[in-house]
UniProtKB/TrEMBL annotation:
InterPro entries: Cell_wall_metabolism_enzyme, Dup_hybrid_motif, M23ase_b-sheet_dom. One of its GO terms (molecular function) is metalloendopeptidase activity. SUPFAM superfamilies: Duplicated hybrid motif. It comes from the Bacteria. It comes from Algoriphagus ratkowskyi. This is Peptidase M23-like protein. Residues 87-184 form the M23ase beta-sheet core domain. Pfam families: Peptidase_M23 (PF01551).
Length: 222
């Protein structure tokens, strides 16, 4: 499949360019994180907001297959040490709560639910798309709870249609406001949810299942 032949609608209503977007680093190489109280969402949010505004940007992005140091904030990711989930499988778009999110291509509502709990997705929508003879799923996490109201399984969604909004904390899983955007070839039986983070031992398996979201976002920053 040639991704370049598909015309995707900008997910945030505008392209994520070097003029309006900064790449954020949440890997262990970012020493700022060592002294940051990540469990305090307001403190974490102040840090993210400062990084974005200090650069003169509107959005902060990053995260695909990034080894992250921020998941120590929540027991959601805690497993045996060898399987600790700290490899991010989507792209995060950090911005103000309430920012609109648009469908990038035609599809239907596959599933949705509130994945409640500290560090989880909060309100989540999964779309199903037909790409030739293949099905592609796109997951939108950390939305406003009200975005789930009135949705129906199988509901048609058109590219460019307003889909949801970036949710505020704590209802968004208690994260600084951002969208988790993930592409998935095989939902592995999941409904309304899918792992957004995997362990280092699982990276190659999930790399095949979850292609780079920038194939759709097409941001020069990523």
């Amino acid at each position: 499949m040639n991704w370049n032949e598909i015309d995707f609608f900008p997910m945030m209503g505008e392209k994520l360019t070097s003029e309006n977007t900064i790449k954020l680093d949440f890997s262990p190489t970012n020493t700022d994180l060592d002294s940051l109280d990540l469990a305090n969402t307001a403190t974490f949010d102040n840090y993210v907001t400062h990084q974005i505004k200090a650069s003169g940007s509107k959005y902060g992005v990053g995260g695909y297959l990034e080894h992250r140091a921020i998941y120590r904030r929540s027991a959601v990711f805690a497993t045996a040490e060898a399987d600790f989930r700290n490899i991010h499988l989507g792209v995060d778009v950090w911005t103000e709560a309430g920012a609109p999110i648009f469908a990038t291509l035609d599809g239907i509502i596959h599933s949705f639910q509130d994945n409640a709990g500290f560090g989880n997705y909060g309100a989540t929508i999964i779309l199903e798309h037909e790409l030739g003879e293949k099905k592609l799923y796109s997951l939108y996490g950390h939305l406003t709870l009200s975005d789930l109201e009135g949705l129906k399984i199988g509901q048609e969604v058109k590219a460019g249609e307003l889909l949801a909004h970036v949710g505020p904390f704590p209802e968004n899983g208690d994260w600084p406001p951002h969208l988790h955007f993930q592409l998935i070839w095989d939902l592995l039986g999941n409904i309304g949810d899918f792992p957004g983070v995997c362990s280092q031992r699982e990276v190659e398996q999930y790399r095949i299942i979850c292609p780079n979201p920038n194939l759709i976002l097409r941001s020069e920053v990523l």
